[in-house]
Amino acid sequence: MTGLSDSPHQGVKAEEPSGRAIVFVIDDDVSIRRSLSNLFRSVNLDVAAFGSAQEMLQGKLPEVASCLVLDVRLPGLSGLELQTELAKLNLHIPIIFITGHGDIPMSVKAMKGGAVDFLTKPFRDQELLDAVVAATERDRKRREVEKTVANLQSLFETLSPREQAVMKLVAAGLMNKQVAAELELAEITVKIYRGRVMKKMGARSLADLIRMAETLGICANQPE
Amino acid sequence: MTLTSLYLHTQFAATAFGYLEMILVFSLMGSLIPSATLFILPFAALAYFFAPPTFNLDDPRDLPVVVAFLVASIVGTHLIGKVRREKEVALEAAARLRRSEAELRDREKQWREIFEHNPVMHFMVNPTGMVLNVNTFGATQLGYAPSELVGHSVLKVFLEEDRPFVRERVGLCIETVGQSHTWEIQKIRKDGSVLWVRENAKAMQWAEDKLVVLIACEDITERKRTETALRRSEAHLAQAQELSRTGSFGWNVATGEVHWSKETFRIFQYDPSTEPTPQLVLDRTHPEDRAAVRETIERALQNEEDFEHEYRLLMPDGSVKHLHAVVRAFGKASGDIEFVGAVTDITAAKQAEQQLRRSEAYLAEAQHLSHTGSWSWDVHRLEFVYRSAEIDRLFGFDPQQAVSIETIRSRIHPDDLPRLQEVSRQAIEDKGGHFEYDFRILLPDGAMRRIHSVAHAVVGSDGNVSELIGTHMDVTEQHAARERLERALAALRESEQRFRDYAETASDWLWETGPDHRITRFSEHTSAAGILATRVVGLLRWEIARDVEAEPEKWRQHRATLDARLPFRDFIYRTVTQMGSPIYVRSSGKPFFDADGNFLGYRGVSTDITATIRADQAERELRKAQAELAHVTRVTTLGELTTSIAHEINQPLAAIVTNGEACLGWLGRETPDLSAARCSVEWIIEDGIRASEVIRRIRALAKKSEIEMVPVDINDIVKEVIALVARELVSHQVSLRTELAPALPLILGDRVQLQQVITNLVMNGIEAMQTVRDRPRELVIQSSEDDMGRVHLAVTDCGIGITEDDADRVFNPFFTTKSSGLGMGLSICRSIVEAHGGSLSIARKQEPGATFQFVLPLHKEVVS
């Protein structure tokens, strides 16, 4: 069962990349699930609601900004377990925990697991909405970053191994001469490679290239 | 003549004159008118048809001629006729005169002869009674010469005592001249002998004014004598006929003359003045016999023979007479037949015969019905002198055949034969007197009859017993009936004893009250209660009881029951023993009536139920305590469930708030989304209902209500429990599996208490799994129906389980493994289940954990 059927506005598809944020709601209590879905929709958020963690895991997460409103206590897989599971699956969806009877160890665990918020019932709905908006924003940003990195990575992958090695060394701040020495190449060759790298990566300046390398995390290779 | 006239052409007048002559000639012949007509008509006809010119009346001169002709012819004819008649008369008178003169002379002579010798005495007396004349025969008859009588008073020949009668008679004749008078009287002859005469007298005028009386006497002495004899014999006959009811009759067939005697008239009930005819007989004859009678008579007529027959008469009043007729046929010289017969009214005899026959039939019937046969036994010839048909039936004898003594003996039961012979012998020896004995008859077909015999000996003229006369009565039926009765009585006695045993076993004392409800009989067969019969007999129940004032309604109803004559059952009242200690008595009674349905009182049993009442009271108190305890534990459980309960209420409340917010959101849009807002509000209502439902459930559990046993579906209760503990399951990470059998039979139970039991078991299960980390915490609730139709409910956990030692103690009060709680849970659960007629137990299982299960009987079983 999915919470979608509870929606007064049918037709919101989780997979549809609308550019809008989508809120996932998992709560075993149908009243809660229904009311939350209703609330989010009333502020123009798309909602996908589920009665259990398993139900959600069966589906595919959309490539849009989203967040998960999760009840801590769930039958079967509990909220915290789902958090762990998602992490294992490398799904970085921001989670807002809600609980009827929050206890300190649980909230600590949740926060440690990367939860965006931990709301204890009764909470004000505005509080939840704020948390949801914040979470989706954060997700959106994360997604942007991820997108940039992915672009750079794909550009980086267009480089030949020699070019990649040159780029890594340049980004590490080595001089052309040093690079040539390192790679046992002629300095002129290094220059050529460097020019090709700059062009392929679309870097306007060395600083730009270095930032790219940093973003890609390939500057870790410290020169010996 | 006409032709002649035509020929001669005579004048009409001449013709007419010719005719006149003719007519006159013919009138002399004595038949003028037809003759004249005979002539005139053809004349007229001929004249008219053939000679009209000749015969012309038109000539006025002819008319006077015609008239004259007619007048002359009529007058002439008349005159001629008259002359002729007178002449004839005169001739005739002269002839007669001559004849009569001669005749007169002859006749006088003749008459004189007749008068003198007529065998009848003729007297002629004058009014004074003097004899004027007497014929010779008359005088001779009286022994006188006529001259001796003439001139003397006629009274001389009469008896002195008859003389006034004669005088009177003669006087009468004189008074009534011309009338004859007849009488019979005696006359005395000259020699003094008497003769009977029949006198015929008449007075007549004799020569002008003189009156004479003519008397003709006929000697009827002989006839008189015969008549007297006849009358006497007739009287005798009539008397005889009357006495013998025999009528006689005679019937001359040829003349049809019929004579009936007086008795015959009486028999046929006809008036004696009726003219008897054979038809009268047939008229009276009974229609059924009529044909036979007719036939008999016809045959007799034909054969001219005597006959004798019996037939019936149907009298006008509807009664029937039986007649017996004997008829002789006498052939007469003329060849006619005369029947002379006697008819006897044999009705009485017939009736007597019928009566006899009927009484014989009645007797036979009576014997048959009463199975009684009568007999007479010749003790010398050793055979039955008489035996009735019933005897034959009883012994199975052929009624047509004589039976030998051997046959009789062979039919008597061998065991009874010697005694029978002894009885007979004794009776013969005792010479008279009644004796009775019983014996059995064995019929050839093996059937046995029991006979009761009553007999007596008849002493003959020789002073010895000649016959035994007696009756045999078949008492087989009576015997069997008596045996049946005895068996029935024995059965009745046994039954009475049995019921007495039952009653005595089931009660402490038996009682009986009269129509006024006062105790008439009282039998205490256990001395436990200590109530003395002598103290209660004569009292009313409400005089014995001590709670009449305390419970007036109960007694009012009881008395209404008694007044309505209805049975009552388990009526409980309080009284005191003779020792003064209070006891409770349970009494049941039933009204009883006599055969006519009159109410006689009540009969019943009573039992001292003080102990039961006390036990009941204790149990009631125990129950109350248990209910209290159940309530306490229930409330405790609710305490334990507080968090869950709060959550259960919070959930819908939170949903309400959120939906409210959302609703506002929908409404606050630029274009308010009303349908979404409406939907939100609907959900708010739903959630509000859900919240109140939760509170209702909690309240039901917390309420200290009376136990209410109603038919319930255990699955419904399980579902309610799940709703209550759902949060608890979630918060303890327990997954619940339910295996509820569909369509379970209803059980009779208290919803709240059963909920409490299941909640308790579920909570225990959750708790038992708290420490479980290595396996999923699963709780299973199963409901099912067993072969006996009982409902099973099992709650299984996979927790720590229960040790063998604890298994015996878990149901004990105050046993607990928890730090908190009363330790009353399972104990209360068990008492609740047992109060529902079921049982709660732990089921053994291989896997870790424990299964608690309870069985509840069916609704039906509970009510029965």
Number of individual domains of chain A: 2
Strand % of chain B is 15-25%
Largest interface: A-B, 25 and 34 residues
Backbone CA Rg of chain A: 23 Å
Task: Provide the CATH architecture of the largest domain in chain B.
Answer: 2-Layer Sandwich
Low-pLDDT windows of residues of chain A: 1-18
CATH topology of the largest domain in chain A: Rossmann fold
The assigned CATH architecture of the largest domain in chain A is 3-Layer(aba) Sandwich
CATH class identity of the largest domain in chain A: Alpha Beta
Question: Largest sheet of chain B, order of strands side by side?
Answer: 2-1-5-4-3
Order of helices and strands of chain A: EHEHEHEHEHHHHH
Strand fraction of chain A equals: 5-15%
* Overall residue-averaged pLDDT value of chain A: 80
Number of helices, where a helix is a run of at least 4 consecutive DSSP H or I residues of chain A: 9
Number of helical stretches of at least 4 residues of chain B:
27
What percent of residues of chain B adopt helix (DSSP H or I)? 40-55%
CATH topology of the largest domain in chain B: Heat Shock Protein 90
SSE topology sketch:
The complex is a heterodimer of chains A (224) and B (864).
Chain A: E1 22-26, H1 30-42, E2 46-50, H2 53-58, E3 66-71, H3 79-88, E4 95-99, H4 104-112, E5 117-120, H5 125-158, H6 161-171, H7 176-183, H8 187-201, H9 206-216
Helix pairs in contact in A: 6-8, 6-9, 7-8
Chain B: H1 2-8, H2 12-28, H3 32-50, H4 62-117, E1 121-125, E2 131-134, H5 136-141, H6 146-149, H7 163-175, E3 180-188, E4 194-206, E5 210-219, H8 221-244, E6 246-252, E7 258-260, H9 262-268, H10 278-284, H11 287-303, E8 307-314, E9 320-331, E10 337-345, H12 347-369, E11 372-378, E12 383-387, H13 389-395, H14 405-411, H15 417-430, E13 434-442, E14 448-459, E15 465-474, H16 476-506, E16 509-513, E17 519-524, H17 533-536, H18 541-544, H19 552-563, E18 568-576, E19 582-593, E20 599-608, H20 610-640, H21 642-668, H22 674-702, E21 709-712, H23 714-731, E22 734-740, E23 747-750, H24 751-768, E24 777-785, E25 791-796, H25 804-809, H26 825-835, E26 839-843, E27 851-856, H27 859-863
Parallel strand pairs in B: 22-24
Antiparallel strand pairs in B: 1-2, 1-5, 3-4, 4-5, 6-7, 6-10, 8-9, 9-10, 11-12, 11-15, 13-14, 14-15, 16-17, 16-20, 18-19, 19-20, 21-23, 24-25, 25-27, 26-27
Helix pairs in contact in B: 2-3, 2-4, 20-26, 21-22, 21-23, 23-24, 24-26
